[in-house]
Amino acid sequence: MKAAEVIMMGRNRNRHALDQARRMHAVPMMSEWGATDNLRALEIDAEVADQHLMGWTHWAYKYWNDPTTADGYEMMPDEFWVWSDVERRTIDIALDGRRSRYSVDEVAEAVLTPLRSPVGDEENDVRILKPEGFIWKDGAIGTSERLRVELPEMNFDVSGRHTVYAEFDYAVV
Q1: How many Cβ atoms sit within 10 Å of the Cβ of residue 90?
Q2: At 53, is the pLDDT very low, low, confident or very high (cuts 50, 70, 90)?
Q3: Half-sphere CA count of 104, side-chain side, radius 13 A
Q4: Most exposed of 9, 29, 60, 83 (fewest Cβ within 10 Å)?
Q5: What does the pLDDT read at residue 73?
Q6: Are 101 and 169 in contact, with CB atoms under 8 Å apart?
Q7: How many CA atoms lie within 13 A of 125 on its CB side?
């Protein structure tokens, strides 16, 4: 594919994404680059995104020995990286409905528990159904036994408040 074709394809993709974001009242963000080792194609994609004021980020979750999925910064050119204070952390997660939990090292923790009846202490099966919901349609309501984040930039503890456990159900229309 020639550079001009890649540029035109990128422009069309960005226009479509920006139009879709406008219709959904969402903030557009490009995060999927596709697996490629063609650095010129990546440069074009980034340039076209910048021309359209489309936010973008690069991330990786596996190593397939190409710049778009590699988790080492040495494979991407310096201009692709914005350094921050983010550190790698271990995430432990257990999905079990209203008994789900996660922790991120000593930085964050959430422990969900089912709602309990104030009379008799049995579990209450409370749900919110949103047939036209944007992110979820059927949410199981619970309580946060613990829900905290402790970072220099952000620090809060909202333990004891309501939680919603739901399957992520998002479709582009």
Answers
A1: 8
A2: confident
A3: 11
A4: 83
A5: 46
A6: no
A7: 1
Amino acid of residue 115:
L
Residue keyed to tokens 């930039």: 153
Q: Are 142 and 114 in contact (CB under 8 A)?
A: yes
Tell me the CA distances in angstroms from 58 to 32, 48, 67, 146, 149, one per residue in order: 8, 15, 10, 32, 24
Decide: 67 and 39 in contact? Cβ < 8 Å. Answer: yes
For 106, other C-beta atoms within 10 Å of its C-beta total 8
Which residue type is seen at 124?
N
The pLDDT of 119-136, averaged and rounded, is 85
End-to-end CA distance of the chain: 29
The first and second tokens of residue 67, run together, are: 């710049």
Computed from CA positions of residues 22, 24, 28, 30, in that sequence, does the dihedral angle turn out positive or negative? negative
d(CA 8, CA 65): 28
> pTM of this prediction?
0.47
Contacts of 137 (CB under 8 A, 6+ apart): 129, 130, 131, 166, 169
CB-CB contact of 143 with 78 (8 Å): no
Top mean pLDDT of 29-33, 90-94, 167-171 is at 90-94
